[in-house]
């Protein structure tokens, strides 16, 4: 009996740091239209999705060992009763419950939990384009958040315009100068995003000022159309 009790105690002590450092994300739709929220993470691999009418929210709990994750809004979706269908932006393989990344353009809330120096790292990324405005902020931890809510879709340069969004130069053209695979990024079109959302991660070679940190165990809110 004593051996069983000790084993049970060790098991709960093992779980304790995970429960302390796990993060809760409240995903809120402030858009005037329905969005289909999505999230996917690695380490361990998991994900999901939920339809959110204006004003609705969805809460997810993310494992403390998550080394990389993203949350995004899908727009213009239609799903059948089995959860299969398609979206105009952010589609993740034609399913409601995402297990893979979305198709550009999609504004991304990216995160990695409890990493170097017991810190969470997070950002808003426009590397895969923009479909809705986004606010990514801590609700605990006493650290700052980041927002990108400019009218990027309405002001999108003609070469990057697609139905429902504004594509990134890399996703649109797939050339080395725009995907930054052979020397520095070509700045002309990437600068369009940076001028409108200076705190966002706007190109594959963007500076580190666009990555933010909070103590491990912080909880967050992700708001569409803030």
TrEMBL record:
Pfam families: Thaumatin (PF00314). One of its GO terms (cellular component) is cytoplasmic vesicle. Keywords: Cytoplasmic vesicle, Disulfide bond, Signal, Taste-modifying protein. InterPro entries: Thaumatin, Thaumatin_CS. It comes from the Eukaryota. It is found in: Cytoplasmic vesicle. Residues 1-22 form the signal peptide. PANTHER family: OS03G0233200 PROTEIN (PTHR31048). Taste-modifying protein; intensely sweet-tasting. It is 100000 times sweeter than sucrose on a molar basis. Belongs to the thaumatin family. This is Thaumatin-like protein. It comes from Zingiber officinale.
């Amino acid at each position: 009996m004593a051996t069983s009790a000790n084993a049970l105690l060790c098991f709960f002590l093992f779980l304790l740091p995970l429960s302390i450092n796990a993060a809760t994300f409240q995903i809120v739709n402030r858009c005037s239209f329905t969005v289909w929220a999505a999230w996917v993470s690695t380490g361990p691999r998991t994900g999901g999705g939920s339809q959110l009418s204006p004003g609705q929210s969805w809460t997810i709990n993310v494992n403390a060992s998550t080394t990389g994750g993203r949350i995004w809004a899908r727009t213009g979706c239609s799903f059948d009763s089995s959860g299969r269908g398609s979206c105009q932006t952010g589609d993740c393989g034609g399913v409601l419950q995402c297990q893979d990344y979305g198709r550009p353009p999609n504004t991304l809330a990216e995160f990695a939990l409890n990493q170097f120096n017991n810190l969470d790292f997070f950002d808003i990324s426009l590397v895969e384009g923009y479909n809705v405005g986004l606010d990514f902020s801590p609700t605990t931890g006493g650290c700052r958040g980041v927002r990108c809510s400019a009218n990027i879709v309405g002001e999108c340069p003609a070469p990057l315009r697609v139905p429902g969004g504004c594509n990134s130069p890399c996703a649109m053209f797939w050339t080395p100068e725009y995907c930054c695979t052979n020397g520095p990024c070509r700045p002309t079109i990437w600068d369009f995003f940076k001028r409108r959302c200076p705190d966002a991660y706007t190109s594959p070679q963007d500076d580190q000022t666009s990555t933010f940190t909070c103590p491990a165990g912080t909880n967050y809110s992700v708001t569409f159309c803030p």
